[in-house]
């Protein structure tokens, strides 16, 4: 009985890092954004605070996103926000635009689909992103 308990305890410790892996790491990132058959590259910084919000639960991530959305030049509201495993999805309304996003994170890379609808017109963007550096200098 003691041996079985010890083995189960060791297995739970071995599994912990896999369960606790970050969805996203902070640092310098680049994204290939493809829309309407054209691809553009974007480089940007993900702060430790932003990464921590993505790595949190649904409530934590939504609260952080809502605080950022309220500070935008055109304030936005979230209709839904869900974190499930490595996937984060949301629907946000900014004025006359509705944005649906679904992104799957892998710590140092991610891929996602963002759909923006405005006045009956819809644009779908595919994003393939990766961390390219520790610092954002």
Report on this model:
This protein is of the alpha+beta class and 137 residues long. Helices cover 28% and strands 49% of the residues. Helix 2 crosses helix 3. It has one domain. The N and C termini lie far apart (55 Å). It is globular and about 40 Å long.
Average pLDDT level: 85
Strand fraction equals over 45%
Helix content: 25-40%
Q: Indicate the radius of gyration in whole angstroms.
A: 18 Å
* Terminal CA distance: 55 Å
Structural class: alpha+beta
What is the string of helix and strand elements? HEEHHEEEEE
Helix run count:
3
Shape: globular
Number of separate domains:
1
Task: List low-pLDDT spans.
Answer: 1-20
Largest sheet: 7 strands, antiparallel
Strand order of the largest sheet: 2-1-7-6-5-4-3
In short:
This protein has 137 residues and is α+β, with helices and mostly antiparallel strands.
What keywords describe this structure?
alpha+beta; globular; seven-stranded antiparallel beta sheet; 7 strands
Helix/strand layout:
Elements: H1 2-19, E1 27-35, E2 38-46, H2 48-55, H3 58-70, E3 76-84, E4 87-94, E5 97-105, E6 109-118, E7 121-133
Antiparallel strand pairs: 1-2, 1-7, 3-4, 4-5, 5-6, 6-7
